[in-house]
Amino acid sequence: SHFFGLNRDRLNLMKKSSIIMHPGPMNRGLEITAECADSARSVIVEQVANGVSVRMAVLYLLLAGAQQEQGGLLA
Questions:
Q1: What is the model's pLDDT at position 73?
Q2: Per residue in 27-46, pLDDT tens?
Q3: 8-14 long-range contacts, CB within 8 A, separation 24+
Q4: What pTM did the predictor assign?
Q5: How many Å apart are CA 67 and CA 30, to the nearest integer?
Q6: Strand runs labelled E in the chain
Q7: DSSP secondary structure letter of residue 39
Q8: N or C: which end of the chain has fewer CB atoms below 10 A?
């Protein structure tokens, strides 16, 4: 965490237009400080929420493709 974690010092080195992303679950205090995770530049909550939808869509498409190959009908 000392070498790779995100903290205030590293956050200050980033461009002001940069955002903080993390797929979750995160280890606050180890890989990212709470200050960084909760900052205005953090989009972690949105990323995690959208990740659920994306994974559901990918699973649906994979299963639908498997049904098509077997001659099944899609809903």
A1: 54
A2: 888 899 999 999 999 999 99
A3: 8/33, 8/35, 8/36, 11/35, 11/36, 11/39, 11/41
A4: 0.69
A5: 44
A6: none
A7: S
A8: C
